[in-house]
Amino acid sequence: MVTVNGRPFSILHDSGFRKLLNPIIEGLPETGFAINSHNIKCHIIDKTQLIINNITTDIANRLISLKVDCVTRHNRSLIGINIQYMQHNVLQLKTLAITELMERHSAIYLKEMVSNVLDKYGIAKRQIFSITSDNAANILKMTDIIDDPENDSTENDDNFIMAPTNEIEEFESNVVQAIEPEPLTKKVRCSAHTLNLCIEDGLKIRSLLNVIGRIRTVVKKIRTQKYTCILKNLA
């Protein structure tokens, strides 16, 4: 209701909503049970921590691919971070955070935001096999900073130990050992964003602009009521 439909917590005090909710609560066998805008936050925090713990357990000592993207909507800037990893030969995709950005989107600031999220999930730098992002200069620079140990004085990977418990983890451990001491993290530019930029550049060609202009004129004409009726009769 809150995360999917965008309703505020105050809806729990709405008289119409309470008419639907109160009979359900009164029918529960548990006495003293209550739901309001205050205690529901505690349930959300507990559920959030449970999800974080589950993801942390799943990705312990695993190689992951990190995906980072930023967006600005309605004067609010957000950064989204998710990961991909293999578990039991199945590709897993998890969202780690969608966090509001309160400062200028410099590469150093973005790196700090990403590092805070990685620390929350106990992800060491050596686990990051790749970082996928769009072609924004600040995000590409952020990837370079993460990849360069000299630019990260807070890094502490000495205690990171690959402890393979099955064939998949043993393979991941062998990959790490084979690549070291070369930098493990690879910078990957989002193919969809790159393709979009190519298409935008292609559409700027004068000959294509003329064709697109004609197409728009035809479509606008067809959308009129007269031609819409003609097309419906032909169908």
Explain the overall architecture.
There is one protein chain. With 235 residues, this protein is of the alpha/beta class. The chain is built from 8 helices and 5 strands, in the order ααβββαβααβααα. Strand 1 and strand 2 (76-87) form a beta hairpin. Helix 3 (107-120) packs across helix 4 (137-147). It is extended. The protein starts with 14 loop residues before the first helix and ends with a helix. Mean pLDDT is 81; it is low at 153-164.
Topology:
Layout: H1 15-26, H2 39-58, E1 64-73, E2 76-87, E3 90-100, H3 107-120, E4 128-133, H4 137-147, H5 167-179, E5 186-189, H6 191-202, H7 206-222, H8 225-234
Provide the succession of SSEs. Answer: HHEEEHEHHEHHH
What can be said about the biggest beta sheet? 5 strands, mixed
Specify Rg, calculated over alpha carbons: 25 Å
- On the 0-100 scale, what is the average pLDDT? 81
InterPro entries: RNaseH-like_sf (IPR012337), ZnF_BED_domain_contain (IPR052035)
Protein name: Zinc finger BED domain-containing protein RICESLEEPER 1-like
Organism: Macrosiphum euphorbiae (potato aphid)
Subcellular location: Nucleus
Which terms would index this structure?
alpha/beta; 46% helix; ZnF_BED_domain_contain
Short characterization:
This protein is α/β, with parallel strands linked by helices and 235 residues long.
